[in-house]
Write a structure and sequence with these properties.
The chain is mostly helical and 135 residues long. 85% of the residues lie in helices and 0% in strands.
Length: 135
């Protein structure tokens, strides 16, 4: 528990330190990739990302691979920038904090938004089809 409390204090400090813009840009990049991949999932008729990952064992491997492929660059960049921040600010490295920060900045926004984007695109397409059929 001490790790988490010290982590959150250190995480909040990152907003005032060098490279603080990354705390906004990296989640934005993850969101853009989630939109891209959610759109593709809708086009391919796949279910919501996290739901399918949890419930569809046949799709799980594909979803994990496509999810990692979609977010790997952002995750690695988030990790590398946090390592740079740690050396600049603390003159040392806390690798677990760097991993957790990269996960918070990249993986969580991506995973949480890919499924809802898929649903929104599918709903929008269904409404367009119904609207065109009713005309």
């Amino acid at each position: 528990m001490a790790f988490l409390s010290s982590y959150w204090a250190d995480f909040i400090e990152r907003f005032d330190g060098p490279l603080h813009l990354r705390l906004f840009v990296q989640p934005l990049m993850a969101i853009l990739f989630a939109v891209r991949d959610g759109w593709r999932d809708a086009r391919e008729g796949r279910g919501a990302y996290l739901w399918s990952l949890d419930t569809d064992s046949n799709e799980r491997r594909y979803l994990l691979e496509s999810g990692w492929k979609g977010i790997a660059k952002v995750f690695i960049l988030a990790f590398a920038l946090d390592v740079a921040y740690q050396f600049m600010e603390w003159h040392g490295l806390k690798p677990l904090q760097a991993l957790l920060t990269a996960t918070i900045l990249a993986v969580i926004p991506y995973a949480l938004l890919r499924g809802p984007i898929n649903r929104l695109v599918r709903i929008s397409r269904t409404r367009k089809r119904i609207g065109l059929a009713g005309s």
